[in-house]
Amino acid sequence: MKQLILIILFAFTFNSFAQVLNLRHIKTNSSKPPVTVTAVQVFDNNNEPVTGLDASGFRISIDGMLPDTLQVATYEKSGIGLDIMLCLDVSGSMTGAPLETMKKSVLEFIEDMRSIDRLAIYSYADDAVLVTDFSGEKEYLKRKVNGLTAGGTSTSLYYGIHKGIEHLKKSPEEKGKIVIVIGDGHNESPAHSFTEEDIIGSANQDGIPVFSLGYTRGNRAHFQSLEKISGKTGGNFYDSPTDEELRTQYEKLYKQVLNIYLLTYKAYGKEGAGVEHDGAVTVTYNGKQDSKNFTLIASLTPKKTDDSSGGISTTMILIIIGSLIVIAVVLFLISRKITQKREEEQAAKREELKRKHEEEMNRLREEKAALEKNAREKANQQAQTMVGSPEEMNAILGGQDDKTFIMRPAGNANILRMAVQVGPLTGKSFNIRQSGAKIGRVDGNTVVLPEQTVSAQHAEIYYKGGAFYIKNLSASNGTYVNGNLITDIMLKHGDYFKIGKNEGQFSIY
Q: What pairing do the DSSP bridges indicate for beta strands 447-448 and 437-440?
């Protein structure tokens, strides 16, 4: 009998130490084919996560085929952020110390969160309420937790978890996603008909593990419901019989989540969106093994190129693409250099043409100024100054239309000579007596200046009070005396005029 007992105890002890590994498959994601990521957890007999494993400790296959490469990292080491949905029981049974203890443990959990993790909170009692959407702002999250109050007559546990899972599904695909439930496991919602199986199916559909913390001051029998949901979704259940253990279990849960292993590999040739393929993953640690089967639902993935069959390898394709990019850059730089040089040459030509044009304009202005100066000097050289009676001057002027005689008046002015020195009528002179004269472009005027810049009735010269006056009429280009636009002024000996393009000098005799 004693030997039998020893054998049974030995067998029990051996069996306990033999099963040192527990592998759990959480999710396999093939949304970015051919890259596939399988998330798993590895536990020892004490339900503690086994850490420090690398690619040599895992073996994975799809339809019996091993991938070429396998990369292994945890959430903690990969730098991938987590979106954590926290579902909290705030029913009437949590009033008082239970709620305050739960809030304290949640606040400490928030403080321990990584900067790349985000937290959202659903509270449940008679109904389920989104307390806060996903945020990594710790002070904001703490304010939301401190504002929680207990109340209600029922506990919508399944409905609260359901709402949390559905909200979590909307977060970015590249994020890790987990649900944490805190409550007594008792569901007593008359308004909602969700079951354990509904929660398990919804979580497994997107590979979302549900972790649960059982906490109550009452009947602990309902914890079985939380254990079942966590066990069938790849999560874990933690019993928290005391306030202090609730805090400890939070730390243990978070450590477990951060040590979820992410196995990354390439699954080629799994064409056809929605087609199911058989997968298997095995972990080996300290000479012990555990395996789990899973289903890979394929996306539309490319086939792996077989280099031996004459195809072009991925490396060669990358080399070709890189070479084309280099050639394109070189051609672009050459083209830009040629264009830049052409633009510089064109700019130089424009500057040279501009310089030559300015030189030509300066030359023409100088020639014009010289011609005008010569014309004035010639007219002045032809002028002769004579002193005599008006009758003598009339006699002289009557026979000299091509000369200008300048007389210093010894009394009232009798004759006004208008000599054109610049313009189309250069060299032409007009003698105007005391009867006056009208100046214009058309016939009928006393002085006709047949040039388009002269108006039909341009100006009038009249005699008054022993002096000659000039008055502007309807001249569109104006009448100028000594460079000034005039309306009606008295003329003096030697005044200069400008009528249209005709310029010259008045002389009084």
A: parallel
Specify the pLDDT at position 56: 94
Concatenating the DSSP letter of every residue in 316-376 gives HHHHHHHHHHHHHHHHHHHHHHHHHHHHHHHHHHHHHHHHHHHHHHHHHHHHHHHHHHHHH
What fold characterizes domain 416-508?
A: Tumour Suppressor Smad4 (2.60.200)
Contacts of 55 (CB under 8 A, 6+ apart): 70, 71, 72
Q: Could you report the per-residue pLDDT of 112-140, keeping only the tens digit for each?
A: 999 999 999 999 999 999 999 999 999 99
Residue 19: band (very low, low, confident or very high) from pLDDT cuts 50, 70, 90: low
Beta bridge partners of 295: 278
Q: Provide the residue ranges of all domains of the chain, joining segments of one domain with +.
A: 22-75+264-297, 82-240, 416-508
Q: Count other C-beta atoms under 10 Å from residue 156's C-beta.
A: 24
- Distance, in Å, from the CA atom of 417 to the CA atom of 397, rounded to the nearest integer, reads 10
Q: How far apart are CA 490 and CA 509, in angstroms?
A: 15
| Type of residue found at 299 | S
| CATH superfamily, with its number, for domain 82-240 | von Willebrand factor, type A domain (3.40.50.410)
pTM of the shown model? 0.56
